[in-house]
Amino acid sequence: MSNLTLKQQEQNLIPQFERVLDGSTKRATAFVAQMLLSLKRLPKVQQLINTDSNAKASYMSQMIMIATAGLSPDSTQNQTATIRFKDRISVIVMYQGYIMIARQNGIGINAQMVYEKDSFENDVANGQISHEIFTDGDRGNVKCFYAVAKDLKTGRILNIKLMTLAEAKAHGNRYALSRGESSPWRTNFNDMALKTVVRKACTSSGLSYNSSMQTLAELDEFQQGEIEDVEKVEQPTPIKVVDEVEEEIVEEVVKPAPQPTKQPSQPAPTKPEEDEVDFL
Predict the structure, then answer these.
(1) Which residues partner with 119 through β-bridges?
(2) Please, what sign has the CA dihedral across residues 167, 201, 124, 109?
(3) What average pLDDT does the chain have?
(4) Is 170 left (phi over 0), alpha (psi -120 to 50) or beta?
(5) Of 136, 149, 166, 251, which has the highest C-beta tally within 10 A?
(6) Rounded to whole angstroms, how far apart are CA atoms 208 and 114?
(7) Does residue 240 sit within a domain?
(8) Which of 83, 57, 100 is nearest to 216 (CA)?
(9) Are 157 and 127 within 8 A, CB to CB?
(10) How far apart are the C-alpha atoms of 8 and 22, rounded to whole Å?
(11) pLDDT tens, 118-155?
């Protein structure tokens, strides 16, 4: 990809996407143009793709799945996010992507975060929920997440899925694809928690057998295998969510201990570089 112009890349890639977009040259051209434009915004991802054939093949496989599911690679639509984790690239489907697929199948999903000062009552068992957003100042910290699925034709509530903050932390610690600091469960915790309740709402609405949902399930399995290859020896670190309040930073000054005589000084250890992360 690196030795070709954008137009040349587009022409070379279009046939691959035509095969999964019902042979539509127009749809394939639009998808590839969005994909290449998004890559221009992610120089670190593009650099890895241009220098690592395995990373390139992995990225293209994930993009084929995204196209098959009917989602867009355009970051401005918030349907997907691309993460570089060491020498791997993961294309994460955000909760907005699941909501769009549900709507295409006649199901509307409303996903919200509930804050401490909001007025919130729920009777999940009987399909009832009341949420009034606090508008007279700071809403406090997030305390839970929920998704309501409705039949778009009848307006009937199909199901309600709710997850407390503690439950969301536990879910992230158990199911996060990446255990490092670059994990979306650390950098985008709220969005990942909303994605969890939205997926549960989709499943309970009968979308498990939908072809687009099955493709996204295959994408999750593909990414799990990719990340496990990288993290075979790493241990998971529990997710810690920082409340949305300013924290006082205290600088501790430690007097250095006297160095023993006739002992050659040792060079300071080199701090490893942090993982590079890019989001669409």
Answers:
(1) 132
(2) positive
(3) 80
(4) alpha
(5) 149
(6) 27
(7) no
(8) 100
(9) yes
(10) 22
(11) 999 999 888 899 999 999 999 999 999 999 999 999 99
Looking up tokens 């489907």 gives 93
Q: Which of 149, 167, 145, 171 is nearest to 158 (CA)?
A: 149
- In this structure, are residues 109 and 148 in contact, taking their beta carbons and an 8 Å threshold? yes
d(CA 233, CA 21): 39
Give the model confidence (pLDDT) of 163-218 as tens digits. 999 999 999 888 776 666 667 788 889 999 999 999 999 999 999 889 999 998 88
254: three-class secondary structure by DSSP: coil
H/E run at residue 132? strand 128-132
Q: How many CB atoms lie within 10 A of CB 226?
A: 21
Residue 247 lies in a domain: no
Task: Name the residue range of residue 204's domain.
Answer: 41-230
Query: Number of structural domains, the chain?
Result: 1
Token couple for 11: 């022409």
* Alpha-carbon distance values, 226 to 55, 60, 92, 166 (Å): 10, 14, 13, 28
Task: Indicate whether 259 belongs to any domain.
Answer: no
Of 66-80, 110-124, 151-165, the one with minimum mean pLDDT is 66-80
What pTM was estimated for this model as a whole? Answer: 0.74
Assigned domain for 34 exists: no
